[in-house]
């Protein structure tokens, strides 16, 4: 592999000067698409400010080595761009760094010269997804501001990690699932399998349920959601002899990967413990780290963010419960299922925030869209309605 360390000879400012072409691409995309689709200037300004985030995260707010996976993607994309690694080799190689890097390498950006470069690639995806959601009229007054101001989304969409790719493909899969476009939803769910198979096995059943129950038109009654939950619970009990060793394997592997000692991790001991852990870990995964668990400034910020996000989720869910429980039930099932899976195997607080934010964002986006949540608080009780109204211009 070619030596990439030459960039550091240019110093802090020099590294960032090399990124100006990528910054320009992102800014042009914001203003050209903003003009084309007549997006309000306040939204364009926030998107433009987001374009500068890659400059002020790595080696400013924290060391790049704090999230060392960024170096892996940087090196892999360079290997693909300079021919040291073929695209076929990348797809069939072990792990998923190379697979994710293929999608980065195909993007219309200069070859990444530093670990912060891919932050602009991800910012580009974040911008494109904004306009897709805008044109598809998914946004409401609430969800558009959440998309633009959610701190975890701002952070991870400006770093050189795969999380934005995952969020991008997951959201597009759901968009086309809601439109009952089976081929397009299948097309966008395939990359998720390549770059993060866990999310594929979470999203896949959810998409199937959406099609089977025709949620787009009929919604899903709370009774159906509870029935599916009960069937899933029964499935957990029946599969316990096979599932428990697998879950324990991943619990230990991820705990050790995050720097823990395998002797410090408690293993699931039986079917009852399996069910109990699955139910309780979902809630804990949604809220951690708690303020008193924070051991660094970043974790403290993330814990305070959790308080804000939980408040938003509560207000959105309460209104959706009053407006359209049938549509809400499906998204509650989606959130509970995803939080339970990851809650069983993820212990590191930073990792939890990284893995959680796409699911939280998707929940907010599509609960607001399906249940027409246009404000966080309502002064009066709202009766159920049958047809949501989406207004991207609001």
TrEMBL record:
Keywords: Membrane, Transmembrane, Transmembrane helix
Superkingdom of the organism of origin: Bacteria
Residue intervals passing through the bilayer: 6-33, 45-67, 118-135, 188-213, 225-253, 297-316, 328-349, 355-373
Protein name: EpsG family protein
């Amino acid at each position: 592999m070619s030596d990439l360390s030459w960039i550091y000879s240019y110093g802090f400012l020099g590294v960032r000067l090399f990124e100006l072409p990528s910054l320009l691409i992102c800014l042009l995309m914001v203003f050209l698409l903003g003009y084309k689709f007549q997006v309000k200037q306040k939204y364009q300004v926030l998107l433009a400010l987001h374009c500068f985030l890659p400059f002020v995260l790595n080696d400013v707010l924290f060391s790049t080595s704090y999230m060392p996976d960024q170096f892996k993607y940087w090196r892999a994309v360079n290997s693909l761009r300079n021919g040291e690694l073929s695209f076929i080799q990348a797809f069939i190689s072990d792990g998923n760094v190379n697979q994710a890097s293929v999608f980065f390498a195909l993007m219309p950006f200069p070859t990444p010269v530093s670990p912060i470069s891919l932050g602009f690639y991800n910012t580009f995806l974040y911008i494109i997804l904004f306009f897709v959601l805008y044109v598809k009229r998914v946004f409401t007054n609430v969800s558009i501001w959440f998309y633009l101001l959610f701190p975890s989304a701002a952070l991870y969409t400006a770093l050189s990690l795969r999380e934005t790719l995952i969020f991008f493909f997951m959201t597009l899969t759901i968009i086309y699932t809601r439109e009952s476009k089976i081929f397009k939803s299948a097309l966008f769910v395939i990359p998720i399998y390549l770059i993060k198979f866990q999310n594929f096995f979470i999203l896949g059943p959810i998409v199937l349920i959406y099609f089977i129950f025709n949620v787009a038109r009929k919604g899903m009654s709370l009774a159906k959601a509870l029935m599916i939950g009960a069937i899933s619970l029964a499935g957990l009990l029946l599969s316990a002899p096979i599932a428990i060793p697998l879950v324990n394997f991943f619990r230990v592997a991820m705990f050790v990967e995050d720097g823990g000692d395998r002797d410090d991790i408690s293993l699931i001991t039986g079917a009852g413990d399996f069910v109990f852990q699955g139910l309780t870990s979902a809630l804990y995964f949604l809220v951690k780290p708690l303020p008193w668990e924070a051991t660094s400034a970043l974790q403290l910020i993330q814990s305070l963010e959790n308080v804000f996000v939980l408040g938003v989720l509560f207000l959105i869910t309460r209104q959706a419960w009053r407006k359209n429980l049938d549509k809400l039930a499906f998204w509650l099932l989606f959130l509970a299922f995803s939080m339970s899976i990851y809650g069983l195997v993820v212990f590191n607080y930073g990792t939890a925030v990284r893995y959680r934010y796409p699911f939280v964002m998707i929940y907010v986006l599509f609960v607001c869209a399906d249940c027409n949540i246009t404000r966080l608080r309502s002064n009066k009780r709202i009766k159920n309605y049958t047809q949501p109204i989406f207004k991207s211009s609001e």
